[in-house]
Design a protein that fits this description.
Strand order of the largest sheet: 3-4-5-2-6-7-1-8
CATH architecture of one domain: 3-Layer(aba) Sandwich
Strand content: 15-25%
Distance between the termini: 90 Å
Largest sheet: 8 strands, mixed
Helix content: 25-40%
Radius of gyration: 27 Å
Shape: elongated
Structural class: alpha/beta
CATH superfamily of one domain: P-loop containing nucleotide triphosphate hydrolases
Number of helices: 11
Length: about 375
C-alpha cells in the first residue's frame, strides 16, 4: 500500500511539472485554463474587445459571473435546473456586457453545442448585443486564443448565427473539418420564437422605462415571457431563464415572476445604494460588500446618483436605482385617493385643526418648504 501511494504521488508530481513546463512553453495554455475556470477572468481578458473604456473591477460583477457560471455548469451536465435567475441592478452596472455579450461566448469556449435565445425590449437593442457578441468571436484576440471556434458562414446574421468547431480531419490529419454547434437567436420581447429553442434563455431589459407605466406594454412583456419564451426551452427540466433588468414598476416582468412566489427562482437584487434601500438588497449578506453604502463607488458614486435622482424623479430613482418601484399613485400617501375641494368647510363643521410646516432646513439647502393644514369635521371626515 505504501509503495502504491508513493508511486501515485510521483505520477501526480510529474504531471504537475509537465503542466507547468507546458505553460512556460505556451503561455496561452495558462490563459485558456484561467478563462475556463472563471467567467470573470474571461470577461477581464476580452474587455478591450467589447468596450473602449478601461475595465473597472467591482465585487458585484464577479458575483454575477459566479452565479452565471454555476448556472451554465449545471446546464452543461444536463442536470435539472435548481432555479431560474432574476437579477435587478441599476443602469450603468455592466450587466449587458457581462450577461448578454460575454457570457454566451464563454460558454461556447467550453460547450460549443449550447444554444441561446436572447431578447430585449427592442429589436435594435437585442441586435446590438448580438453584434458585439459576434464581433468578439471574430476578433483577432479571440481567434488567437481559440482558433478552433468560429461562426458558420452560411448562418451568419446578427439575429441568428451558429457556432462551428474546427477539428483535424482526413487521412493525413491535415484537413480541417467543421462541426456545427450551438447558436444565438436574438429577438425583441413580443417577437416571434417559433422554430427556435435554447439551452439558456436570457432576457436583458424586457421593458422600456418610458413604457413601464402602460398597462398594455407591461402585460405584453409579461405574457410573452411566461407564455411564449417559456415554451422555447430545449429541455423543459434543464433550461434556465435569466431575466436581468432595472426595476420599473411593481408589475414589470421581474416583479410579475416574483409575485408568483415560486420556489425555484433565485432573486439577486443590488440597488445602487443601500442608505435608503437597505431592505432591497438580496441576498442580505451582500450588504457587507457595500462601501459608503454604495454598490459601485467608481461607476455610481453619490454625485452621479444625486444627478440621476434629479433626472429620474423620486419614483424613477426608487425603481431604477433603488430597485424598489413605488406605485405611480404615491408611496406613503395615495394621491389618487385625494379629492380637490373648491370651497373650505364652514367653521361650525370643524371639530379640530392642526398645522405643520416642514422647513426643509438641511445642510445642502434642502428642497421646498412644505406646509399642511388638516381639519377633522363633525361628520368624521
Amino acid at each position: 500500500m505504501l509503495a502504491t501511494i508513493n508511486v501515485t504521488r510521483t505520477k501526480q508530481s510529474v504531471k504537475r511539472i509537465d503542466l507547468l513546463q507546458a505553460g512556460l512553453n505556451n503561455p496561452k495554455l495558462v490563459i485558456r485554463e484561467l478563462n475556463r475556470r472563471s467567467l470573470y477572468h474571461f470577461l477581464q481578458y476580452f474587455w478591450p474587445v467589447v468596450s473602449p473604456h478601461k475595465f473597472q473591477p467591482n465585487w458585484h460583477i464577479e458575483y454575477l459571473c459566479e452565479e452565471l457560471q454555476s448556472l451554465a455548469m449545471r446546464v452543461s451536465e444536463k442536470k435539472p435546473r435548481d432555479h431560474d435567475l432574476i437579477i435587478n441592478v441599476p443602469p450603468g452596472s455592466t450587466k449587458t456586457i457581462t450577461c448578454s455579450i460575454v457570457f454566451p461566448v464563454w460558454c461556447w469556449t467550453q460547450w460549443f453545442w449550447m444554444r441561446f435565445i436572447c431578447a430585449s425590449y427592442s429589436s435594435a437593442l437585442s441586435m446590438e448585443s448580438a453584434e458585439y457578441c459576434r464581433d468578439l468571436i471574430r476578433s483577432t484576440m479571440f481567434q488567437e486564443m481559440y482558433p478552433e471556434l468560429g461562426i458558420k458562414e452560411d448562418k451568419d446574421t446578427k439575429s441568428n448565427f451558429k457556432i462551428v468547431k474546427y477539428v483535424e480531419g482526413g487521412s493525413a490529419g491535415r484537413i480541417k473539418q467543421s462541426i456545427t454547434g450551438g447558436s444565438r437567436y436574438s429577438t425583441s420581447v413580443g417577437g416571434t420564437l417559433v422554430g427556435f429553442h435554447g439551452d439558456i434563455l436570457i432576457v436583458d431589459d424586457p421593458l422600456k422605462p418610458d413604457e413601464a407605466v402602460s398597462d398594455v406594454q407591461r402585460d405584453t412583456a409579461n405574457r410573452w415571457c411566461e407564455q411564449s419564451l417559456s415554451t422555447r426551452k430545449t429541455n423543459k427540466a434543464v433550461t434556465p431563464t435569466i431575466i436581468i433588468m432595472q426595476r420599473l414598476h411593481q408589475d414589470d416582468p421581474s416583479g410579475h415572476m416574483l409575485a408568483k412566489q415560486k420556489e425555484n427562482i433565485r432573486h439577486i437584487c443590488l440597488p445602487g445604494e443601500c442608505r435608503n434601500f437597505r431592505n432591497q438588497v438580496k441576498p442580505q449578506e451582500l450588504l457587507v460588500k457595500y462601501r459608503d453604502d454604495l454598490l459601485d463607488p467608481n461607476r455610481l458614486p453619490w454625485n452621479v446618483l444625486r444627478d440621476m435622482e434629479a433626472d429620474l424623479g423620486q419614483y424613477g430613482y426608487a425603481g431604477q436605482v433603488g430597485q424598489d418601484p413605488t406605485p405611480p399613485g404615491g408611496g406613503m400617501f395615495k394621491v389618487d385617493h385625494l379629492q380637490i375641494m373648491t370651497t373650505s368647510p364652514t367653521a361650525n363643521h370643524v371639530r379640530q385643526t392642526v398645522r405643520y410646516w416642514d422647513k426643509a432646513a438641511t445642510q445642502d439647502g434642502g428642497a421646498y418648504s412644505c406646509g399642511v393644514k388638516m381639519s377633522k369635521l363633525s361628520d368624521g371626515r
